[in-house]
Each structure stands twice: as C-alpha cells, then as structure tokens.
Amino acid sequence: MPNDYFQFQQFRIEQAACAMKVSTDACVLGASVDLIGATRLLDIGTGTGLLALMAAQRHPTVAIEAVEIDPAAAAQAAANAAASPWGPRVRVHPLSLAGYAATGPAPFSHIVCNPPFFQGALRSPHAARTTARHAAPDTLTFTEISRFAANFLVPGGRLTVLLPVPEMARFVADAAAVGLQPATRLALRHRLGSRVLRHIVALGRDPGPLVVQELAFRTADNDSVYTATFQALLAGFYLAF
Q1: Please, how many CA atoms are within 13 Å of residue 45, restricted to the half-sphere of its CB?
Q2: 25 Cβ contact partners less than 8 Å away, ≥ 6 residues apart
Q3: How far apart are CA 76 and CA 222, in angstroms?
Q4: Which residues pair with 14 in a beta bridge?
C-alpha cells in the first residue's frame, strides 16, 4: 500500500487524506512543465498539492493558486503548502473549477492539470478515488478545463496537461474547439523501448510548430535503474538523486 507521506528533498507530501497519491507521472509533470515567464500559476485538481509545490520550488516568484473539490484533499494540500518553505505563495481553494471561476480570478500565465481521465471504465467503490480518477459525468470534464483555460489564460499563456494517450487525443480535440492548440508533447515510457503510456501536452492560442520529445523512466535492460535523463529531471526533488 502507498505510504501516508512522500518525502522530497525540500518538502514533504502528506497524503493519507487524498484519494490519489504521489505518482511518478505527476512528478515528471511537475518537474517538466515550462515555467519560463511564469507570474501566476493555477493547479487544477491539486489533490495533495504536489504540482503546486513543485512549481513553487522551481520558480522563486510565481504566485500559485490551487483548486481542489474534495474538502479533505484540499485541507491536506493546504497543510502541505503551509509546512513547505513556500507557504505564503500557495493558496488552496476548496472549490470546484466552476465555483472558482465564479470568483473571477485574475488571469494566469500558466495552468497545470493532471485531470480525471477514465471514461466508461469500472468505477471505484471509493467515492473520493472515483472523483479523482474519472471524468464526466462524475466530476471535472475535459471541456470544462479547456474552456476555463481559454477564458483565464493571458495572451501567450500555457495549459499543460498529463493524460494517457487515448484520453489526450480527446482532450486535444476539446481544446481545439475553444482555440487552444498543442505547442509541446512529451511522451512518457516506463522503460526504454516500451510503449508510450502517457502524454504531457502544453497548449496555447499561439503554439507555433509542435515540439515532440520522449522520456523513459527506466533503462531497457534493468527495470530497477532510472535513465540518466529521468535522474537529471528529478534531481532537485527525489531523495535518491
């Protein structure tokens, strides 16, 4: 079973109250999202607060907002932020995305999201885990995320999303309907030579030519050994590196 906490080099994620625990995929998202020119960042569905805190560590001045619909997870994310070195820069809102939009937040330069993605699959018997993992009709939808980004990104802003490959194709289609196009795509493999499991895609209104890259977590011949590229990416976060 997952631990009730995950210790990083500069902060600790308590996660006992959160349905979705710290994952390798999410850590890669937090470490790889492009924060150049970041001024205000929103983490949609923050869960433990992982992505918000990784952004706070990576960027010394960005103001970070985080939204989480589950009250227990929101409280834990807020506590994780308060216990970190960057507490004053991270605000957690225990709201749905629609509820947060209704507050009229200032525009964002960056939005990051690891959204619910299982569509039409078996539902978990645990309601919180279902909310965290499943898209419509349970909770946050791809269309809602895309429309929010279209309304609240500054010109030149970016929405960066982590999803499995089939779900990402659907997300990109929804985003195109509101004028957002892919700028970068990072394909994630568990090990060198294995199939692509996830895509991390950054979208914007003025994306330019699509930049495509790949990242394998582990070497092809030894599943216990991380690739040099993965180690370099997470070197500021994982205790092992």
Answers
A1: 26
A2: 114, 162, 188, 197, 198
A3: 36
A4: 5
Tell me how far the alpha carbon of residue 169 is from its chain's centroid: 17
**Torsion sign, CA atoms 125, 145, 164, 232:** negative
- Assigned fold of 5-166: Rossmann fold (3.40.50)
- Rounded to 10 deg, the angle between the 50-58 and 71-83 helix axes is 30
Domain boundaries, the chain: 5-166
Contacts of 72 (CB under 8 A, 6+ apart): 17, 18, 128
For helices 165-176 and 142-152, angle between their N-to-C axes, nearest 10 degrees: 50
CA–CA dist 201, 33 (Å, integer): 9
| Distance between CA atoms of residues 190 and 174, nearest Å | 27
Tens of pLDDT along the chain (241 residues) come to 568 999 999 999 999 999 999 999 999 999 999 999 999 999 999 999 999 999 999 999 999 999 999 999 999 999 999 999 999 999 999 999 999 999 999 999 999 999 986 443 333 344 444 444 434 334 699 999 999 999 999 999 999 999 999 999 999 999 999 999 999 999 999 999 999 999 999 999 998 999 999 999 999 988 889 999 999 999 999 999 9
| CA–CA separation, 122 and 236 (whole Å) | 37
The model carries a pTM of 0.91
